[in-house]
Write a structure and sequence with these properties.
Oxidized Rhodanese, domain 1; alpha/beta; 5-stranded parallel sheet; globular; 10 helices; about 280 residues
Length: about 280
């Protein structure tokens, strides 16, 4: 185990003593169905952590964190209970699993890890998979929300110029040269934000890069892991990859802006810059 990650070898050796959750999510343009892919193939014993379903139904924004009671109910139905060691993974390698990792931690469940390389690496390494659904034994999940891990619009706006903002979107979207995939959003970035494209943190096999390479990426982006950082992206998915990478190299004060650009880019009272920082 190399917190906040676990390897496929570690998971295979501890599969009977952990709760495994498939948190696969894909962009709409990918034309994939993560729930159907889970039914077709998943790590033995895994349950499906549906990021879109485990969200606030009253929010106009995509997959917003639900309230504590709804989250506790969803985790209980998945069989994720108090004190359990949880490993989350996704079908891309590392993409959406860090979002589930952040959600669990933000709700007070610290004993959660991300499978480095996800299902693709699990299969490449020759481990077994299964198909069909998984009948979870209902559990009791007690939420203890940690406000320091999640930021809202007002908090982020107040932090501009004082706290580092690490934006996980592509360089073209960050600079405002490429239209946002969600209609009605302005292009650009928050004033003073630093661009740390999530793909720059991963290897070609979609595993997290080694620590020294991660440090080099953040250094090049002028993001100091020793100072507070707020991560953001398009809708709060890839921002969690940046958070995962920062915590992997020892950052102690990292939070995530849940609304991300889906909210910021749609608000007239949100300041925006374009071009290179």
């Amino acid at each position: 185990m190399d917190a906040p990650l676990v390897s496929t070898e570690w998971l295979a050796a501890h599969l009977d003593t952990v709760r495994v959750a498939d948190a696969s999510w894909t962009m709409p343009d990918d034309k994939r169905n993560p729930a159907a892919e889970f039914e077709a193939m998943h790590i033995p014993g895994a349950v499906f952590f549906d990021i879109d379903a485990i969200s606030d139904p009253a929010s106009p924004l995509p997959h917003t964190m639900p309230d504590a009671a709804d989250f506790a109910d969803a985790m209980g139905r998945l069989g994720i209970g108090d004190g359990e060691r949880v490993v989350v993974y996704d079908g891309t390698g590392i993409f959406s699993a860090p979002r589930a990792w952040w959600m669990l931690r933000a709700m007070g469940h610290e004993n959660v890890f991300v499978l480095n390389g996800g299902l693709p690496k699990w299969r490449r390494d020759g481990y077994a998979v299964e198909s069909g659904g998984t009948a979870a034994v209902p559990a009791t999940f007690t939420t203890r929300p940690l406000a320091g891990l999640a930021r809202d619009f007002g908090q982020v706006k107040a932090a501009l110029g004082r706290v580092q903002i690490a934006d996980a979107r592509s360089a073209a979207r960050f600079r405002g040269e490429e239209a946002e995939p969600r209609p009605g959003l302005r292009a650009g970035h928050m004033p003073g934000a630093k661009n740390t494209p999530w793909r720059s943190l991963l290897t070609q096999e979609n595993t997290l890069k080694p620590d020294e390479e991660l440090r080099a990426v953040f250094q090049a982006a002028q993001v100091d892991p020793l100072r507070p950082v707020i991560t953001t992206c398009g809708s709060g998915i890839s921002a969690a990859i940046v958070m995962l990478a920062l915590e992997k190299i020892g950052a102690a004060d990292v939070s995530l802006y849940d609304g991300s650009w889906a909210e910021w880019g749609g608000r007239a009272d949100a300041p925006i810059e374009t071009g290179a920082p």
